[in-house]
């Protein structure tokens, strides 16, 4: 990915080295293992699984020395966020709407958000209550080594997916889904979650399409990196990894094939109107 000459975003908040005063409220056992795997990559609303915020003291540790590799990754994240800002500003402008830029919070080990407390194992997430994306950069090592999804465009896809959830919040989609989920049983609520996640994948594809047209950032192999990342974090793949079998009714993010298909749809069309996962029977 050709990113080095890109504009750096001003909306990155660096909380690495801060000490949050809360902890995640997830129990032990198979359920929490599955939850950790499902949350390990992209988009679970931590308000569903985390404690409410509490009084806490947070202080930066200025004595921590960062490696050149990590600082380059911070630079990369800032550039990718800048690309999402420019692309979604243009898309919203074309629709006669205003895009409100989210903040991206970098943290290490644990963080407090308006949705609750999260540890690094939760993975990247978007909190609609404060409209911020949260990511511990150590996740990218897990993406490469544990999920076998290396590459800088795979890393960019992570951010684009979370920003896709922000777009859903601005368009009122997230609130509609939350309202519907409160009225249906767990299986139906899970299906709504799957549709919401697949739409965020499609929005990430739209972003890639439009950013490529505007900035020519893609290199050979980049699209394959993103497709591989999408495939690596399908519910079916993660469940087979953790327990050896799949439980479709428990899916919350979609299968590997579904995630790839919807990212590809956004990438091919560059049109968010093609991302209506709620209006199609066959996902």
Automatic annotation (TrEMBL):
In this chain, composition skew of type Basic and acidic residues spans 7-17
Q: Has UniProt tagged this entry with the keyword Transmembrane helix?
A: yes
Q: Which UniProt keywords apply?
A: Membrane, Transmembrane, Transmembrane helix
Segments of this protein annotated with the region Disordered: 1-21
Superkingdom classification of source: Bacteria
Q: Topology in the membrane?
A: Single-pass membrane protein
Q: Where found in the cell?
A: Membrane
Q: Where are the transmembrane segments?
A: 21-44
Q: What is this protein called?
A: Neutral zinc metallopeptidase
Q: Organism source for this protein?
A: Limnoraphis robusta CCNP1315
The organism that produces this protein has a lineage beginning with: Bacteria, Bacillati, Cyanobacteriota, Cyanophyceae, Oscillatoriophycideae
């Amino acid at each position: 990915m050709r990113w080095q000459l890109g504009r750096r975003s001003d909306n990155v908040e660096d909380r690495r080295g801060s000490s949050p005063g809360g902890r995640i409220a997830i129990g032990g056992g198979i359920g929490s293992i599955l939850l950790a795997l499902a949350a390990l990559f992209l988009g679970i609303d931590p308000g569903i699984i985390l404690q409410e915020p509490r009084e806490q003291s947070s202080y930066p540790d200025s004595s921590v020395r960062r490696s050149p590799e990590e600082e380059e990754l911070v630079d990369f994240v800032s550039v990718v966020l800048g690309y999402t800002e420019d692309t979604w500003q243009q898309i919203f402008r074309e629709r006669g709407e205003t895009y409100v830029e989210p903040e991206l919070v970098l943290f290490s080990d644990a963080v407090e958000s308006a949705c609750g407390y999260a540890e690094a194992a939760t993975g990247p997430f978007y909190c609609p209550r404060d409209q911020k994306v949260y990511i511990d950069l150590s996740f990218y090592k897990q993406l490469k080594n544990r999920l076998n999804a290396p590459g800088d465009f795979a890393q960019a896809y992570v951010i684009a997916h979370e920003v896709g959830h922000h777009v859903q919040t601005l368009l009122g989609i997230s609130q509609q889904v939350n309202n519907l989920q409160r009225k249906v049983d767990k299986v139906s609520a899970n299906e709504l979650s799957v549709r919401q996640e697949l739409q965020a994948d499609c929005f990430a594809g739209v972003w890639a399409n439009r950013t490529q047209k505007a900035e020519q950032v893609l290199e050979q192999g980049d699209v394959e990196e993103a497709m591989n990342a999408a495939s690596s974090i399908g519910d079916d793949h993660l469940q087979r990894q953790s327990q050896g079998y799949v439980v479709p009714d428990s899916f919350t993010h979609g299968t590997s094939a579904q995630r790839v298909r919807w990212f590809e749809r956004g990438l091919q069309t560059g049109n968010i109107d093609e991302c209506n996962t709620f209006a199609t029977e066959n996902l």
